[in-house]
Amino acid sequence: MVYKRKDLIGTKDLSKEEILYFIELAKEFKTLNNSDFKKSSALHGKTVINAFYENSTRTRISFEIAAKRLAADAINFTASQSSSKKGETLQDTIHNMEAMKTDIFVLRHSCSGAAQFVANNTDASIINAGDGLNEHPTQALLDIFTILEHKGKLEGLTVAIIGDIFHSRVARSDIWAMQKLGINIKLFGPPMMLSNVEVFGCHICKSMQEAIEGSDVLIMLRIQLERQDGTPAFPSVREYSKFFGLTSAKMKLANKNVLVMHPGPINRGVELDSSVADDKNVSIILHQVENGVAVRMAVLHALNLYRNSRK
Ligand code: CP
């Protein structure tokens, strides 16, 4: 066993070996997912609750599918229909669901640090499914798995992350994880969306051309309006699209075998034109979504192995 922790909170404190362990497990689960009988008994008898305090399509559904494919009892908790609307705290909510013998919580919350806070105060395992602008570790793992599948290697690749870096938990988790694997990272976006990003030690580009040229992978990010305080970070959506959006015309600057990725949801015509998003020669966005299930099965399985070893 390589992963000897109760929780998965972020990639910042993961080792290279732990990241590659999840990827190796995900490869096995992808093989299972492509078979006729997409079922393992690994988590039979275990209970997994998806506790989502923020909206989600890909992450919530893929965790639910993952838990069910591993034969766990998977329950979805939606905060907007829960007693949190009557004032119940996050900690009380988790403790109450833990009293029902829940083994693993998958938590998404708008507050940075929420997953670590809950993990420190429960015996159940916590998987961070996105906390504020802090981390989204399973997105980073599925991004790395998808790049490895398409490029056959990770070390020495150049990945450009373009858009709203400052408000993006995906960017943070990608950067922390990819740097450990020897991937060179370039960042580009509007100045207000690049504030403080020098702490990552990545190359910060001065133009879209510099970000695109020479990159093996372009990761386009959505503008995270839900994490902005109302002060516009750019003059208009039209200007954002013109200067920071990826179009077929700008793709002419790219390497021949460049790959385009996006964590979703896409704002078509803003950060990414449909002509690029739907171009199967370059866009691997739906491969990311497919791999999300296998990666989440890998994480659930690894945490369950650790829990079993502690009995
Ligand atoms: N990538 C991602 O986290 O998508 P959702 O918000 O739909 O889960």
Could you walk me through the main structural features you see in this protein, from its secondary elements to its overall organization?
The protein is an alpha/beta fold and 311 residues long. The protein has 2 domains: 16-136 and 292-309, Aspartate/ornithine carbamoyltransferase (Rossmann fold, 3-Layer(aba) Sandwich); 137-288, Rossmann fold (3-Layer(aba) Sandwich), CATH 3.40.50.1370. It contains 11 helices and 9 strands. It has helices at residues 16-33, 58-69, 90-99, 114-119, 137-151, 169-180, 208-212, 237-244, 248-251, 274-277, 285-309; strands at residues 47-52, 73-78, 104-109, 125-131, 158-162, 184-188, 203-204, 217-220, 259-261. The strands form 2 sheets. It has a 5-stranded parallel beta sheet with strand order 7-6-5-8-9. Strands 2-1-3-4 form a 4-stranded parallel beta sheet. Helix 2 (58-69) links the parallel strand 1 and strand 2 (73-78). Helix 2 (58-69) packs across helix 11 (285-309) and helix 5 crosses helix 11 (285-309). The longest helix has 25 residues, at 285-309. The protein starts with 15 loop residues before the first helix and ends with a helix.
Which key terms come to mind for this protein?
single chain; Rossmann fold; binds phosphoric acid mono(formamide)ester; 311 residues; four-stranded parallel beta sheet
